[in-house]
Amino acid sequence: MVEDGVEELEDLVHFSVSELPSRGYGVMEEIRRQGKLCDVTLKELRSSLGISHEVAVHCHLGLQSSESFTGAGGSSSKLTQIGDHKFSAHRIVLAASIPYFHAMFTNDMMECKQDEIVMQGMDPSALEALINFAYNGHLAIDQQNVQSLLMGASFLQLQSIKDACCTFLRERLHPKNCLGVRQFAETMMCAVLYDAANSFIHQHFVDVSMSEEFLALPLEDVLELVSRDELNVQSEEQVFEATLAWVRYDPEQRGPCLPELLSNIRLPLCRPQFLSDQVQQDDLVRCCHKCRDLIDEAKDYHLMPEHRPHLPAFRTRPRCCTSITGLIYAVGGLNSAGDSLNVVEVFDPIANCWEKCHPMTTARSRVGVAVVNGLLYAIGGYDGQLRLSTVEVYNPETDTWTRVGSMNSKRSAMGTVVLDGQIYVCGGYDGNSSLNSVETYSPETDKWTVVTPMSSNRSAAGVTVFEGRIYVSGGHDGLQIFNSVEHYNHHTATWHPAAGMLSKRCRHGAASLGSKMFVCGGYDGSGFLSIAEVYSCVADQWCLIVPMHTRRSRVSLVASCGRLYAVGGYDGQSNLSSVEMYDPETERWTFMAPMACHEGGVGVGCIPLLTI
Predict the structure, then answer these.
(1) What sign has the CA pseudo-torsion 97, 100, 102, 104?
(2) Which of 85, 157, 459, 531 could be cross-linked to 44 through a Cys-Cys bond (beta carbons 3.0 to 4.6 Å apart)?
(3) Other CB atoms closer than 10 Å to residue 275's CB: what's the count?
(4) pLDDT band of 454, cuts 50, 70, 90
(5) Angstrom distance (rounded) from CA 458 to CA 414
(6) What are the CA-CA distances from residue 544 to residues 180, 271, 512, 533 (Å)?
(7) pTM assigned to the model
(8) Would you list the DSSP string of 497-525?
(9) Alpha helix (H) ranges present in 227-316?
């Protein structure tokens, strides 16, 4: 407002110096270094024995002193010098930056009036580093101090530092340290680090079993480990060899434990020759009656198949490590015009990106995909004119496709799974009718063999391996869409009914993850579905889980990194390039990077990354 030629100024002006808080903390740190204005002293008192409450960790992180760590099976006792360590500071700074001191100094605790406060049991160097952090917000984490910093941060309730230390350890997991890290994480109640170490142990079991930490494990830990479904092993023989190495490390004390250990190993899954030449001939096994009985049981499994249904189910269930990071391959499918494609692309779940691979020799939609020994098989499908019986295999190391033996029947929209190193295809459509036939492929012989057919003709069913059985859910026979489920016991070559899904559906995705089997999406005859269900074998029943964000028919579902990925599909109007990820821990679906070259109808397979 201008009056009499003079501009009237506002009465309020905001002035600020944004760097003042950080600059002020810097000044306070310098004042503390000069020993001025400090009003509290923190003292770490250590005795001559100095028995530490720390659970030390042999982290293989460059820790050299034998006084500062033990293996996974022991406890730590660190000898220290007599004396104490004192650190002066300002109460207001400690209260503002460290929750432990905020509670102490603002709640009329006894210590709030004391000039000197004893910090019993904290490592002096960690305490000093955390006090310095309160002033400057900086902390250097290295291989020597990460353990004491994590313990100190936990004591002082500095969650951000605790998380940073856990991340440091998680990124440096190694077969030689993961058991110790897991024990430390359990003691410190670091759930994320514990789960990461546990998953690492499962993924790299063979290498872990060769470590000193493994050999130092107590019996109960070895029993828990060798009983896990999630162990990543090429054969059960590797589990036996690891267990025997543990026993031989201290045969006098551990020899009597061998029967209990062998009862948790899936000996029937070992090769007959291995059972006869290696297991049965071992001197520890030969002198134990209970061990010999277990070997006889395993040999009878191979010699008398009719006895297989009477064996404990877990002992004949193949192990399956679903937490392994795997590259997801999208094979064939359709473009926006509905044409069949020979295009192949691969998804990295960690990097969340797709890359194009070498195309197949044949265009294939509604194609079956299987992964055996790191090779990707594209089976049958529809080339735009004909249903196919041909099969080609992709080698990711050479980025090349090669033709192998063809199926006995032409089929598209079939279910394809791998069990005990054999590929199974179930049902499908041959151009005239839906099929109930099932055939299996041996990569060693390059031959397809017809096995027991399903009880129903099923095209576009969901097929997955779960609890050592092949489960086939839903699908259609050309007249009706099913909600029924049946499973195949490959030991007895018989099909058995299971609880039906809550919704009838075909063209849906199916996959197993851990102890659960999932289905999602599909078509029920009147609408395209986003709903998803989970099956529990113990309860023999299905329950709904949170639906996907998008309706998806012709969707593929695959497990990788302990999560499920729903790839592509058709929403009733258009083919989809989008991908959703389901995390069973958070029970949420999240969109991931969409496919770059496909628009729905793809077959998918996951090739695990087994390198450390």
Answers:
(1) negative
(2) 85
(3) 21
(4) very high
(5) 8
(6) 39, 40, 15, 4
(7) 0.62
(8) EEPPPSS--BS-EEEEETTEEEEE--B-S
(9) 236-249, 251-254, 258-262, 272-274, 283-286, 289-303
Three-class DSSP category at 198: helix
Fill in the DSSP letter of residue 478.
S
Q: Which domains does the chain have, with CATH numbers?
A: 24-200 (3.30.710.10), 218-316 (1.25.40.420), 326-608 (2.120.10.80)
The pair phi, psi for residue 480, each rounded to 5°, is -140, 155
Residue found by looking up tokens 């990711």 in the block:
396
* Whole-number Cα distances in Å, 339 to 23, 32, 467: 65, 74, 37
Rounded to 10 deg, the angle between the 146-156 and 124-136 helix axes is: 60
Sheet holding 375-382, edge to edge: 368-372, 375-382, 387-395, 400-404
Token pair, residue 235, equals: 């054969």
User: Which is it for strands 83-89 and 326-331: parallel, antiparallel or unpaired?
Assistant: unpaired
Instruction: Provide, rounded to the nearest whole percent, the portion of the chain with pLDDT above 90.
Output: 62
Contact at 8 Å (CB) between 349 and 582? no
Nearest to 387 by CA among 361, 416, 413, 417: 413
For residue 267, which of 245, 289, 306, 300 has the smallest C-alpha distance?
Answer: 300
Model pLDDT for residues 174-190, shown as the tens digit of each residue = 999 999 999 999 999 99
Instruction: Give strand ranges (E) for 105-161.
Output: 116-118
Map residue 56 onto helix, strand or coil. Answer: coil
Using CA atoms, how far apart are residues 106 and 454, in angstroms rounded to an integer? 72
Closest to 204 measured CA to CA, from 225, 172, 232 = 232
Say if CB 144 and CB 65 are below 8 A apart: no
- In the structure encoding, which two tokens stand for residue 171, read together? 């990124």
DSSP β-ladder status, 326-331 and 375-382: unpaired
Average pLDDT score over the chain: 87
Q: Is the distance from CB of 334 to CB of 568 less than 8 angstroms?
A: no
DSSP states along 366-390: S-EEEEETTEEEEEEEE-SS-EEEE
pLDDT of 339: 85
Average pLDDT on 446-457 reads 97
64 pLDDT higher than 80: no
Backbone angles phi, psi at 248, to 5 degrees: -70, -15
For range 150-172, the mean pLDDT: 93
pLDDT band at 486; cut points 50, 70, 90:
very high
Cross-strand pairs, 45: 84
The per-residue pLDDT for range 263-292, each reduced to its tens digit, is: 999 999 898 889 999 999 999 998 899 999
Task: Decide if pLDDT at 81 tops 60.
Answer: no
Q: How confident is the model at residue 103 (pLDDT cuts 50, 70, 90)?
A: confident
Neighbours of 308 (CB within 10 A): 16
| Exposed/middle/buried for residue 53 (C-beta within 10 Å: 0-12, 13-18, 19+) | exposed
Distance CA 307, CA 262 (A): 20
**Phi, psi of 59, deg, nearest 5:** -90, -5
